Fold:
Amino acid sequence: MKLRLVPLLLTSLLSAALLFGGWFMYRQFAIQEPLQKIVNSYEGVNDSHISINRDEVSLKLDLQPGTKLRELVQYISTEGQSVIGGRTLNLDVEQHSNQELDEIWDKAMFSVAEAMESRKYTLIPATLDELKEQYKGITATTEIDDNNVYVSLTNGKESKFIILPRQPETMGVWNNA
Structure:
């Protein structure tokens, strides 16, 4: 039996194009697009970029000042459960901060790190309330869920969102602070 090279190559290329094209279309229209609609429908989300891997769903979010971050995470987790499945949800919030908000967070970071390390989470709002009195027009919101502590600093126009994992890592720095 003699195999012809051109029909064999054409068949292989066509099969690969259909297989990978179908997989791409499924990922784009059945997974990523519905999750994009869920995220963008939440009030306070300006823009989002979604990256879905085998083990995790990464969201890069652009949020308006005053957006409730814990409620957003809960909304995405419940409404997007069919898409997220068993994957972990990672958030990266785009910062629209200014020097004043960065200065407040720098002053609070040591106390917040100590509260996180000792698992005395009620010290975090108290620390931020003390700093709010020094800086007029600043709003500090602290929320907590099973996985993270969410800190939001805003002055009306700019905002700084910090997500602190409740499960401490062995070594390192908060990469999203």
